[in-house]
Write a structure and sequence with these properties.
With 315 residues, this protein is an alpha+beta fold. Helix content is 50%, strand content 10%. The protein has a five-stranded mixed sheet, with helices on both faces.
Length: 315
């Protein structure tokens, strides 16, 4: 199974979703939902999580979550793990409650936090669970519009700060923002997500790629990583290798295969088609060069220089 790409750092914002296995319900009543909220609270106390927005649906949930300590996996392991243990014990079941790994989209908070809060809060309306959002009590919407006393662990001030200017109460302005526009329910900021991983401006995406993605080798189990990495083409690699090792055709060919296998993100079949060999031959040629690099320092230096040259040409 392909693993999601996780970009983690202190202060990161995420839109988190996690769904029930086989799309089954993960909340069977108010008691379950209250227990889940208790794990959100304990995540803020134990692991420094900041919960800005939440919505508990029937077979999934949404969070707008911040990680001041850069420990997303620890936070989510606590929330999902503790709730699964509780749910299985209470309902006398075994096995996975949640479907695979949770989805975490890294968000540029200043650009998208406000729009995401609306999107998350509108979920019950889109699903036809209620006719008015005020009738749904299992999201943070009622806290945001001042209809009930908020728990201490829910941090509303960041999103509501966008509504602090001008006349009128902050709560009323937020209510109008979420509900007033007739077409707002169809406004999905997640449609702009880049490779199921990053939501933000072009500058934000470029910054994240440069700081956390570029320089990492493609990985067959991380398609999101492969898509974000700016990769040299097979043709660029062949040309670069020939410019250095062209006087040794056999070595040049095998080094090209090795670098294509390591850096292009292309499949063995696609690489083999260019070199007119089978998939197993691609693997064998790549493996032979890898072993050769461990034995021959001169070749190792040449290939290292080629890798740096290729990386610089695509930045």
């Amino acid at each position: 199974m392909a693993r999601p790409l996780r970009v983690c750092y202190p202060g990161a914002f995420y839109h988190i979703t996690s769904r029930g296995n086989e799309k089954k319900k993960i909340f069977k009543g108010a008691v379950d939902r209250k227990r889940f909220l208790s794990y959100l609270e304990s995540a803020t106390l134990r692991y420094d999580a900041v919960i800005h927005v939440y919505c508990l649906m029937g077979n999934h949930y949404h969070l707008l979550l911040e990680t001041p300590s850069g420990n997303l996996s620890q936070i989510m392991r606590h929330i999902n793990g503790a709730y699964t243990t509780y749910f299985n014990t209470k309902h006398r079941r075994v096995g996975h409650l949640l479907q695979g790994r949770y989805k975490a989209i890294l968000v540029e908070r200043d650009e998208y936090a406000k729009a995401l809060s609306r999107y998350i809060h509108q979920n019950p309306l889109r699903a036809g669970m209620v006719e008015k959002l005020e009738d749904f009590q299992w999201s943070s919407y009622l806290d945001y519009i001042g209809e009930r006393r908020s728990p201490a662990w829910l941090r509303k001030e960041f999103v509501l700060g966008y509504f602090a200017h001008g006349p009128g109460s902050i709560q009323n302005k937020y209510r109008e923002f979420v509900c007033a526009a007739p077409d707002a329910i169809d406004d999905n900021p997640l449609s702009e997500v880049v490779e199921s991983t990053i939501l933000g401006s072009d500058d934000f995406v470029r910054h994240i790629k440069e700081k956390f993605v570029q320089g990492r080798a493609p990985h067959r189990d991380l398609p999101a990583l492969n898509a974000l990495i700016t990769k040299p083409t097979i043709e660029e690699i062949i040309k670069a290798v020939k410019s250095v090792l062209g006087h040794q055709p056999a070595l040049s060919r095998n080094v090209s295969i090795y670098l294509c296998h390591k850096f292009t993100g292309q499949t063995l079949k696609e690489i083999g088609r260019v070199f007119q060999i089978g998939e197993s031959a691609v693997s064998q040629a790549s493996r032979r060069i890898e072993q050769k690099l461990k034995r021959e320092e001169k070749l190792f230096i040449v290939v290292e220089q080629l890798q740096r040259k290729l990386k610089m040409s695509i930045m």
